[in-house]
Amino acid sequence: MQMNDRKQKVLWAIIQDYVSTAEPVGSRTIARKYDLGVSPATIRNEMSDLEELGLIEQPYTSSGRIPSDYGYRYFVDCLMERETLNPEELRRVQRAMSERLQEVNSIMQQTTNLLAKLTNYTAVVLGPQVGKTTFQQIHFFPVMPTKAVAVVVTSAGVMENKLLDIPESMTPEDLQKVSVMINERLQGLTMAQVRASLCMELNEALKKQKQVLSRSLELIDEALHGDSDERVFLAGTMNIFKQPEFKDVEKLQNLLGILEQHHTVRELMHDHPEPGIHIKIGTENRHEGVRNCSMVTASYQLDGEVLGVIGLIGPTRMEYSKAVAVVEGLTGQLSAVLKKMFNR
To answer: Which residues pair with 20 in a beta bridge?
Structure first.
C-alpha cells in the first residue's frame, strides 16, 4: 500500500500514543504531542483517510481512534525502526546466561524468565526437539560392589541417570570398557540407528557384560524418547493481568485456556518453521483464543539445526520494536550458550 509521508506520520503517532496509553487517540492529542507541523483539522482529515483504508478504527461513537490489526501490520512492515538491546539490557542478559547453568532445562527456564522480565509480556520457550537429538555419551560410576550409576547425555543436553545392578565379578575397568565401546560405536546416532545392526555388533563384543549393555540401551532409549514432545517453558503469565485489554474476563479466560494447552502452544510457536523473526498480529493467529494478541517468535539453533522456538505473547497493542529486539537478542545468546555447552 502506498501512503504519503503525512499519513504515515499520523499513523505512526497514533500507534505510539495508543501503545503507551491504551486510550483512543484524537487529532488534538496528535497535534499537541507529536509536532507534525499541521493543524488538528488536517490531522482529522488524514485520520479519516486512514480509517477508510482500514488502518485505524473508532471503538465507539465520538471516541478517538485506535490502530486496527491491519494498521499494526503496516506499522511493523513499513514504519517500525528496528531496535537492539541497550548496553544495560545486554549486560543483564549476558550476566544471567553466564551463571552456572549445567542443564538444558535450567538454561531454557532462565531464557524464559529473561524474556518476560525485559518486556513485561508472557514468554514461551519450547525446549529442544527430542526427536532430532542423538546419543552422545554414557558414563558409569561404581557405587557398590553390585551397583553403578549410569549417566546418559544426548545432543540436546538431556541427561538421564539410573542405578544399575552389575555382576559382582564386574570391575570398574570392565565398566570403563563397556562405556568406551558404547560411546565409540553409538555417538551421534538416533535411537532408530542405535537399535539397528550396531546393537548386534555390540552384543557380540560385550557378551560378558550383556546385562549391563541391555540396561544401558534401555537408559539411552529413555533419554532420547523419554519426553517425545518439546517441553513448554512459560514465564510472565501474571503480566497478562497488567494489560487493560484483558480486564475483559472472556478474553482473559480464552488466553489462559490456550496457555494451559501445551499442544496448542507448540502449534502456535511452530507456525513459522523458517529461521528469523516472525510476528503474528491479532486475527492473523489461527487460534481463536489468541486473536486479541500478538506473538513475536524466533528459532534458536545449534550448528545450523533448528532446536526450538522462543517467543512472546502480548496484546496487539505491543511495543513491537522492543519485543523484536529482546527475542532476537535472547535467541542469539541462547544459541551461543548451547554451542559453548556442547563445545561445538
So the answer is: none
